[in-house]
Structures are given as structure tokens and as C-alpha cells.
Amino acid sequence: MFGFLTSNERKMRENAENWLQLADKICHYRRDQLTTAQMQELRKKIAALRQMLQQRADAGKLKLGIESLEGLLQQVGGTFYPKSSIVENVEFFLVAAIIVLGIRSYFLQPFKIPTNSMWPTYYGMKGENLPPGTPAPGLLERAFRLVAFGAQRREVIAPQAGEVSAMFFPEGTLAYTLRDGHKWLVVPTRVREYTFSVDGTPATVLVPADFHDFDLLFQETFFGSTDGFRRFLATAGKDGRVERTTVQVRDDADSTRPGYLIRLGKTVQAGEAIMRFDILTGDQLFVDRLSYHFMRPPIGSGFVFRTGNIEGLKLEDGDQYFIKRLVGAPSDTLEIRGTELWRNGQPITGAAAFGRNARREGRYPGYRNYGLLSAGEKLTVPPDVFFALGDNSPDSKDGRFWGFVPAKDVIGRPLFIYYPFTRRWGPAR
Fold first, then answer.
1. In this structure, what is the dihedral angle of CA atoms 77, 83, 88, 89, given to the nearest 10 degrees?
2. What distance, in Å, lies between the first and last C-alpha atoms of the chain?
3. Backbone phi and psi for residue 53, each to the nearest 5 degrees, phi listed first
4. Tens-digit pLDDT profile for residues 255-314
5. In terms of DSSP bridges, do strands 126-129 and 273-280 run parallel, antiparallel, or are they unpaired?
6. Contact 402, 311 (CB under 8 A)
7. For residue 405, which of 301, 303, 315 has the smallest C-alpha distance?
8. Helices 214-223 and 226-236, interaxial angle, to 10°?
9. Strand boundaries in 212-311, DSSP class E
10. For the chain, what are the domain ranges?
11. pTM value?
12. Using alpha carbons only, what angle is made at residue 14 by residues 9 and 18, rounded to the nearest 5 degrees?
């Protein structure tokens, strides 16, 4: 750090010691590859430079000894010396990768919140509607939003002029096909493909498979609100706008569901945006992988776990990382009364989110009876497992649906939200 205070002679002595270490290494590792003459010459020059150090020769003499040794090392060093810049860069990145993998495996692991099951504690991907015909961020603002919030633009462009139609599942949600896609053009991922039709010509858009705001954005764009969309559906059948069809729900052609093609009553021009919106990235945080090796996760803590050994998840989601809030440990009895979660016969404590959900405070919607915690049902947590719920109970795929988390599959606790750069940036709750 304070190298400018070191004398020239001392610097040269340190330099000579480094060259001697390299020469000794070559001498030991390449002695079966060098000729007898080369070995003798190498040992001679090593001995000469070492003697200069012992006799505390001045910087000028040390420099001559180093240059003499370096000239020979260039001839006999093989892969040890001289090194090309490519080799040095490969070694640097290899060591860096090993260090990063070690930190990720045993100490800190980055994790991205994909869905809004823990909203408003943690945010998953959110959609920001930019209806066609209204002002939208320009290039500079888009660049800033991309860096600060991970905002990525999506548009559905009309291929020709005509009336817009869309396909729906029987339950009234927009139909989509799950496909294999790529993130950053390289990383394999699953995507949802939504398809509109303009007088029979398709117009498609791809969004991440975990993005769940598309229906809401569609309803706001075409009908102003969810209520407006419901009013439209109530009259669409009477007006002859509805046609039965089938929807391909996965890549394989045999995977289909019944559906409806509905004319939406909106006409567009060729090249016009049918829909336009930004997808804002979910919270990205560091997970502490060390603490839970020495202590059991406390009730109320957010915790990250693997899904590969959870029967209700592994077939659909495979071996992924989920984040929920721990609400039940072995032998605990749980139930939901109204919008409040009870543990062992009294309102649960241990996290601010519990009280906020019970009171339906702010954006916390309250707990909902479903599945294993249906109305009037009590659940006792078995040994060696935990029970987890999301803070956004109406929109959380959690333990009520798929059961228990094996204790061995708990990864760690949320530590710090490092991206995006919003007011949530900082220590995780």
C-alpha cells in the first residue's frame, strides 16, 4: 500500500527473491525435461543471484543478476515462463471462478424473487402498463430504467390492419403456450407466448414463465380495468364475438386445452402497437447460506429452500429455489381464523408481516383458507419438516398447496437486497 516509501534497493531485493522462487520452481518441475547442461547453467545462475542477496549487493548488481537469470528462464521455462497473456487471463478467471463458486456454495448466494408470493415484503416481476397512444419513456429514460430497475420493454405489433382478437382459457384468463426460450440470448429458460390475431394474422409476445401481470395489463389496455373486462365478457357471447377453439398449452402439439377466440372490438393499423408495457425485475438479494448450519430457522424468518424433494412441486417446477416465510416447525399446530394465522392456540408472532396480514394493513391482504389450511382445519407439522406460507396469501403457491419443506433442503435466510435500486434496497426483512 505504501510502496512509494520503499527504497529502490529493497524493491530490487524483493524482485530478486521472486525471480529465485520462479527459478526454483522450474528447476524442480522441469528437471526431467531439461538437458544436463541446461540444469547446470540454471543452478549456476540461481546460486549467483542468491549469493548477491546474501552479500547484500547494491540494486545495480541485483538487476544484472536478475536479467541474466531471466534470459535463461525464457529458454528453459516451458509453460512456467514466459507466460502468454492468454494463459495469464485464463488462470486469473479460473481462480476467480473458483473463489466465486466457493462463496456461492458455502457463504453467500444471489437469489432473484421471480413471483409476487411474498409481496409486499419482497417484489417479484411487475408489469408497468404503457398503453398505446400515451407517452412512454424515451431512449435515455429507458436506458436509466434498465440499469436502475431492470425494466425491459415488451410490445405486441399489429402485422396488418384489422380487428384484434385474443384466445382465452375457459376460466376467462388469456391463453398462452409454454415454450423453451433463452435469457440474454444464451441461458435456457421457460417463457409464455401470448398470441393475438388481427383479422386472422397472428401477433405474438414472449414473457418470462413466472410473469403473472399480463392479464391485468391486457385488461387495462383494452377495457380500462378488470371490471370493464368483466362487463365486456358478459355481453360478448350475446354479440356473437365468441368462437370455440383449442389452445396449444406446451411445445408438443398433442398438449391442448379447450378455449375461446373472442373478437375484442378494437381495430388497429399495420405496425401499430396492440399492447406496450415494461417488465420490472424482481428483487435480487443475497442469501446467507452459513447460519442455518448452526441454528434452526426461527419462526417468522424468510427462508430459501430447494423444491426437488417436495412431492407437490418437483414434477411441475423441478429442483428450484423458493422463498417463503417460516410459520411452522415440527409439532406446531396451525390454523387460519378469518385473516389471521394462529400457531399453537394463539396468534402467531415473530414477524411484522404476521400482524400486518391479520389487520390487512397497507398492502398486506390477510391470510386465506385453502388446501391444508381450509376453514375450520388445523394442521400439525410432522418431525423433520417445516411449513411455509407466502406473505401475499391470495396469490401464493405455498405449503397450503404442496405441503412441507424437508429440513435438509433449507438453504438459508435472506440477507440483503442488492438490486434493483429502489427504496427496498438494503437489509432484507
1. -150
2. 38
3. -65, -45
4. 888 999 999 999 999 999 999 999 999 999 999 999 888 889 999 999 999 999 998 887
5. antiparallel
6. yes
7. 303
8. 70
9. 242-248, 256-268, 273-280, 284-288, 302-306
10. 3-76, 126-280, 284-427
11. 0.73
12. 145
pLDDT of residue 5: 42
C-alpha torsion angle, residues 378, 384, 390, 396 (rounded to 10): -80
Q: Under 8 Å CB-to-CB from 40, ≥6 apart: which residues? A: none
Mean pLDDT of the chain: 89
C-alpha cell at 378: 388445523
- Cell (9 digits) for 359: 389487520
Report the distance separating Cα 278 and Cα 274, nearest Å: 14
The three-state secondary structure class of 428 is: coil
What CA–CA distance (Å, rounded) separates 184 from 190? Answer: 13
Residue type, 361: E
Cβ-based neighbour number of residue 95 at 10 Å: 10
Segment 164-171 shows an average pLDDT of 94
Are the CB atoms for 156 and 205 separated by under 8 Å? yes
How many other C-beta atoms are found inside a 10 Å radius of the C-beta of residue 41? 15
Cis peptide before 427 (omega within 30 of 0): no
- Tell me what pLDDT residue 85 has: 56
Instruction: Give per-residue pLDDT as tens, 359-401.
Output: 999 999 999 999 999 999 999 999 999 999 999 999 999 999 9
What are the two backbone dihedrals, phi and then psi, of residue 176, each rounded to the nearest 5 degrees? -150, 165
DSSP H/E element including 8: helix 8-29
Residues sharing a CB contact under 8 Å with residue 408, sequence separation 6 or more, in sequence order: 309, 384
- Assigned CATH topology for domain 284-427: Umud Fragment, subunit A (2.10.109)
Task: List the grid coordinates of 68.
Answer: 541474466
| Residue ranges in 308-412 assigned as alpha helix (H) | 311-317, 352-359, 399-402
pLDDT at 4: 42
